[in-house]
Amino acid sequence: MIVEYNRNATVAALELDQNELLASLHAAWRREFSGEPEVFFAPGRVNLLGAHLDYNEGFVLPAAVDRGTFVLARPREDRRVRLHSLDREPSLELDLDSLLYTQAHGWANYVKGVLAAAAAESPGVDLLFGGNLPIGAGLSSSASILVATAAAVNHYIHKKRSTAELVHWCHGAEVHFVGVRCGIMDHYASAFGRSDHLIYLDCRSQTHREVPFRSDAAAIVVCDTTKRRELSDGKFNDRVRECGEAVAAFNREGVRATALRDLSRADLEANITKIDPLLYRRALHVVTEIERTRAGVDALRRGDFIQFGENLRQSHRSCRDYYEVSSPELDALADAANATKGTFGARLTGAGFGGCCVAVVDRAELDRFCSEVPALYKKKTGLSPRLHIFKPSFGARRVAGDL
Ligand code: GLA
Questions:
Q1: 203 CA distance to ligand 1 centroid (A)?
Q2: Cys staple from 63: which of 19, 288, 291, 392, with CB 3.0 to 4.6 Å?
Q3: How open is the CA angle 195-360-180, to the nearest 5 degrees?
Q4: Catalytic (active site) residue 186
Q5: Interval 326-340: pLDDT, tens
Q6: Backbone φ, ψ for residue 171 (5° rounding)
Q7: Which residue puts its alpha carbon closest to atom 6 of ligand 1?
């Protein structure tokens, strides 16, 4: 199935989509709550280069996408919190001062994590959520829930927090409250995204530069395998642990490194026989992926989409062979995209183990891509992919107002 395929209709369709979503949210608000809410939005993200580099203190290159999570919010005076979602269970009523992680609460744990971190200064609040991102597809619907919640709460504490502080708030909630040892990229891109730009983020200094992306020349197509990740958080946390073990192993050989980012090619070459092969493969991916991300940014700045695409292709191979986060479906979809004329490059994106590939496609060949790639993928796997064409977009904001 192809979603938003008609290029000329894309913008109008999305606007309609958002207006309909907002109308449903306002109707649900009137049923569940009272008074006039304010509306906040935070987008999902897609990462172009820099796979699994954020928690290794490396460099990543995401864009905020033009879909995400809306939250309607209204403060309360009694320190109670009421949470509803248009499309997710459960609805909850809780006390702001005793918010605890509860596995059965699913999505609401993300909201609780942000509220718990701000409880000392925040009022009680009614919150109603609704989104238009595919869930579990690797576009970080969870970060968009976190950042939308943080944007709402920040509004009620008189914007005391900077955007960078909101990012830390959300990251802390995901790591310490929800228990996923993710890096900072998803929250950062959702908060700092900029229209028609990629965010080149140094995850150690936590500063970024904006890299123009010429959407008139190339399209970012997210290709969903429709195969959801299994045990993803467990496997994701395994990779984080392995990287820590790799740093320790290199230190034992006399290399001074606090994160895999600190290793050089020479460190790798000098220690090839001394480091456990699995840990070595993880380190090799990180060192070469940092090089690819830098090279990709340089290529984009020159307007060289061919070289940029080549970096994506190599990134997929490294994710598959060295970091081992691919799956048969991701390989089939990346291969189908990379074999199609007009694809500059494609690779798995997000955590991997299922979910999506991202392809950068020549605008003039988009029609071919949208008909040939699903056919090739279906032939190989029997599955029909979903294609989403995204434009890099603005980060979190109050709707009809600034963040
Ligand atoms: C997940 C995590 C991110 C990042 C990516 C891999 O999406 O949430 O922090 O590590 O995987 O690049």
A1: 12
A2: 392
A3: 70
A4: yes
A5: 999 999 999 999 999
A6: -60, -45
A7: 52
Confidence of residue 6 (pLDDT cuts 50, 70, 90): very low
Please determine, for residue 16, whether its predicted confidence score (pLDDT) is greater than 70. no
**22-26: which pairs have CB atoms within 8 A and are 24 or more residues apart?**
22/70, 22/399, 24/86, 24/130, 25/70, 25/72, 25/86, 25/128, 25/130, 26/72
How far apart (Å, rounded) are the C-alpha atoms in residues 147 and 165? 11
Residue of 45, 46, 52 to mutate, ligand 1, most atoms within 8 A of C-beta = 52
Residues sharing a CB contact under 8 Å with residue 232, sequence separation 6 or more, in sequence order: 351, 353, 354
- Cα(102)–Cα(72) distance, integer angstroms: 23
Side-chain-side CA neighbours of residue 300 (13 Å): 26
Instruction: Quickly list H helices, 6-136.
Output: 7-32, 108-118
Active-site pick, 54, 126, 186, 331:
186
Cis check: omega of the bond before 277, within 30 degrees of 0: no
Q: How many residues does the chain have?
A: 403
* Range list of β-strands (E), 29-138: 38-47, 59-60, 62-76, 80-85, 92-95, 124-131
Model pLDDT for residues 372-399, shown as the tens digit of each residue: 999 999 999 999 999 999 999 999 999 9
For 353, the token pair is 């183990």
Averaged confidence pLDDT in the chain = 92
Residue 5 has a pLDDT of 32
What are residue 333's phi and psi, to 5 degrees? -75, -40
For residue range 238-294, list pLDDT tens digits in order. Answer: 999 999 999 999 999 999 999 999 999 999 999 999 999 999 999 999 999 999 999
Q: At which residue do the structure tokens 């191979």 appear? A: 317
Residues in Cβ contact with 7 at an 8 Å cutoff, skipping those fewer than 6 apart = 366, 389
Q: Is the CB of 144 under 6 A from ligand 1?
A: no
Residue 124, pLDDT > 70, answer yes
For tokens 């020479």, name the residue.
Answer: 266
Q: Are strands 397-398 and 92-95 parallel, antiparallel or unpaired?
A: unpaired
